[in-house]
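step: validate -> pass
step: tokenize input -> pass
step: predict -> running
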Amino acid sequence: MRIDILERLARQLRETIVGVSEDLELTADEAGVLELVDLVSGSSGLVFEQTLPASTNLAPLEVVFDGMIARSSGRHPPRILTEHGLRHIDDLLETCQDIGRHGTPVRIQMASGEYPPFYSWPSEVWTDGRPAPLYALPTLPLVLDSVTLRGAFPPELPPITDTEAGKWVIRFTGHVERLDNRKSEMRIRRDNKLKELNLSEEQFATVDGEDARWKRVLVTALSATPNWDGVVEVLRVVPATEDVEVEATPTNEAAQQIQPLLKRIADFADLPARWDSYSAEPIKIGAINAAKAFLVLAASELRARNMVMTLPFAAPVSRGSVQLEWENGDKYLEIELFGERWLDYMRSVDNDAAEGETNRDKALDLVVWFHQRGER
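step: predict -> pass
step: emit ->
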């Protein structure tokens, strides 16, 4: 990316922060200092950090990006901003769009983690061509990175393209509110075109509490069209979420394969108390949903590695959980799901065994381990 473009963006950002700081009635000392602290990929990006005194409760850079996201998505901007501050934000948006019109598309987003962040919630500042992300991290660096969207995916989770219509698993992050199943509408922007997906009621798996902000959230959607031949860029679930970056992985064959097993697990909800004629608890809905989501994810993960999942044996457990068991010769894997974040495992090869608590990502690794030939 050309240095003059980076300098123009940096200059406009500084001017915008000054204008918004005036709206926040912050003195120059209270507004902190925006400094260049790093380069990204040679000269393809600049990283700025805004250092704030402890007495400053509201970061101007965060307000700037909140305002940009609101302006670009048609929502009301933060009430704390006056017309003075909004003019500065509009100037920064116009700068980004003008740079895009001249061949260097820019996308604005907030993110967490190390830069360049892989999981984030972007606004819709889109122009023709492929976007170059502009990032702001929680510690308030600003990053401009000229990588394409395909390059922004984590190396261990590459995007997969497929023209086959059917079931998809879409992984995304961002601040996710409870989704409204009564109006389950999804719009996909790809190559400046909107595509629509219709969602069924049980196709959302969200996480509660503070983890919801940056945790990956799973959505299984039924595609209305077969025309998925490129990397998906922006996902909007209306009405309750921000736009978020997505990775879409088709799971058509895998989903069809595991449908009978998913139905068997769903039927565990009908088991009454003491279903084992002793003291068994009813199977918790959270455990059932977690097991179903885990199986869809596992099938998708294995398909991405050109493997087909061996269907496990699924069984209810007297303490209200769901147990999945895989066995092949002397190789054995058992995963017990109590909910979205609570899993136990036991794996063994011959007389060598290990067990304990785990999380979903590590449990997925165990399923991959079981299906790999020669791995012990």
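step: describe -> The first helix runs from residue 3 to 23.
step: cleanup -> pass
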